Fold this protein.
Amino acid sequence: MAQTRAGTQAAAPPVVRLEGIAKRFPGVVANDDVHLEVVSGEIHAIVGENGAGKSTLMKILYGMQRPDEGTIEVEGREVHFRSPKEAITAGIGMVHQHFMLAGNLTVLENVVLGLEPRRGPNLDRATARNRIQELSKTQGAAVDPDRLVEALSVGEKQRVEIIKVLYRGARILILDEPTGVLVPQEVEELFEHLRELRAEGVTIIFISHKLHEVLEIADRITVLRGGHTVTTVDQGEVSARQLAELMVGSELPTPGTRESTVTDREGLVVEDVELRDEDGRHLLRAISLVIREGEILGIAGVEGNGQQELVDVILGLREPSAGRVRLADEDVTTTGTRQRRGAGLGYIPEDRQLRGLLLPFPLWENAMLGHQDRPPFSKGLWLDRGGAHARTEEIIEGFDVRTPGPDVMAHALSGGNQQKLIVGRELTASPRVLLAAHPTRGIDVGAQAAVWEQIRDARAAGMAILLISADLEELIGLSDTLWVMFRGALVAELDPAEVTPEVLGSYMTGAAQERGA
Amino acid sequence: MNKQASKVLLSVAAPTVAVGFALLLSSAVLLLIGESPVAAYGAMFRFAARVDSAISIVNRSVPLYLSALAVAFGFKMGLFNIGVEGQYRLAALVAAWVGGVVTGLPAPLHVALIIFTAMAVGAGWAGIAGTLKVTRGVHEVISTIMLNFIGTGLGAYLLAAYFREPPAPGDLVIKTPDIPPSGQLPSLNPVLEALGVDVPGGSDLQSFLILAVLAGIVFYLLIWRTRFGYDLRVSGVSATAAAASGVNPKKMILTTMLLSGATAGLVGMPMLLGFFHRYTIDFPIMLGFTGIAVALLGRNHPVGIAFAALLFGFLDRASQILDFEAIPKEIVTIVQGIIILSVVVAYEVTHRIIQKRQAEEVAAELEGATETEEVAG
């Protein structure tokens, strides 16, 4: 379709042109006067920190949100999408960060869902299968259309998402943070795949905040900062450092290493912990680890390899099938979560909305979550509203939570500020042991540096910290000891001073194996 | 202050709009059947304004208030106790029997024993549903509904086989022995008269009203001011966050069911202690189900529930005049139904408005803050 329009404009007419896009939300970073031109058949990256407005911009292009100002042109024609359906009709498809697949259906069924070819009242599987194979044969590793989606790896699921979008006739593909869930090897496969699609004339808009990936795959890069377009550059024009500075607008923080504060006092001890599901399959196998006071023990691993289960066992939310958990000298294997938390166990949860916050509650009631049975939040059986308010003010002040005050409901804060409140809540309570799962997920670079500094201070003050993260640089930069978790076991201990993300990645996928001591 | 005022205004607006909408729709129905809404509502209000009606409205709303409190206990932690109906009826039966057979106790103790028995039976009956949920994962909506039927059957059996007073010859009423005067509550009429109200004969303002007010205060303090209440509310908002914060979900479910059931046990007490003094097979029913509607309308808050209970008490009482005006009093049932439906919608709408407003406020204040920062920098 796009090809027939050639000739009306100069050499490479933009297939997508966004002019002066503005979108305002209450309390959220929005778009303001954003300009974007994407040329047909290119891979165009959009980079920016969390909250720079990348996702909003793409939601506008995909018809999920309508801009307050500005115009959108697709293939030279001004469009006003009212829904993703209209964007799809115009040839725009989006692969979301979180997969939208039905695990109990096959690949084929997932792909055709909503657009089923029919033979009489039935699904015409033959036609669908042909079409899917046609779409996927050019793409290196094809996915078997008859496999159940729940049995696929993360990389394969992503491929299904892409096929799903292509099946709907998309010629412009938006990928929202596609590498966030992938390990380095899978990222390579994805990039291969994207290059093939480009060769077929598909235009790709690639949203990311990972600079080395962007520099590797993109033809052109548009940088967003604080809702504005900073600039658009060609690949090869900039270095990663320059790109980062464009993104941040100032110099780049790193989770640098410092001298060791590790003591010889044991803070958290996990001994031979096993966890099995109802079918007797291992979720955790033979986990043993010791975190000393003043030590940060990092755990790397692709999500879903037992990290969550390990946290649950340490917190007392799940009972291990075997093994023991100790907090300092106290065996807590059979004690409840409340006693463990009272004994000095802090927790920054991986999913703040699920486990860390009460969205319809005011901040002061959120600040006491997990600490409600102790001063300053309660006196005996009664809540201490005054004490809770004072502590909340302290957290807001000390951790730079941007809010008008402690009586605001948690849902009114941006994600980054919610996270800062949780980090502040846990650190202010100065626990003996801290479980920090993805402590800087979803917060901007400035706040990230602050959280790193606070975790480091807590370590210097003698806290024993278990750090689980998907950000390999964060893990390498903060950890004193670094383990890789794979299929429920700790498979390798690596030296954070020497390891590279690539080496980590090979252990995380199970490609390399070394049974640590 | 201004913000606070507008927040209160907004939360009052929702039920007001809902009630207004319900009256409007009911007017349409009245017009359809050829009656004048003005005449109907006029008759209702004139009738309700009489002193005996006012007393009757309060008396009717007290059990509804307690029933709604029982439901609200569950709602606050996300549990749906649909079994208040069975709980209060069984509780009233056993309490009536205990009160009737026990003699020789001083008055306050006798009354306390009856009330305690009712709360224990209500808690025990609700506790079955709680135990089933905790140990076997049976959803409380299913179990409490089924327990309503079982409770009705069990109550009928107990009354007929064990609790029935040996009937006098020719007496066909199936009832428990009468509670002696030491187990009865006096009326509040002397207080009203002292206040200069001329109480018509046959009208008694039941003194359980005071205990209901106390129950409301206890409910408020427990839910909003104690650690236990915090745990309960946290569990209602996010079971996962509650567990991570150290709440034992099983214990919380069981405790809440017991509390809800104990409160349900109080529902029959105003009538039993203040009026009937015995349990008969025609003891008032449906208060448990109406309580769900009242709790919903009152937003699970003791003050809101009080207004909702009074409104339902008013509709109940005022509807009686409609028969005299040859207007079908079922119109009131329609009003109640529409109130519930529209209040659900109205609450969701105001909830969104409030949320949006708060987010805007935060944004506005932060914008102001950044500007000052920039000026300073």
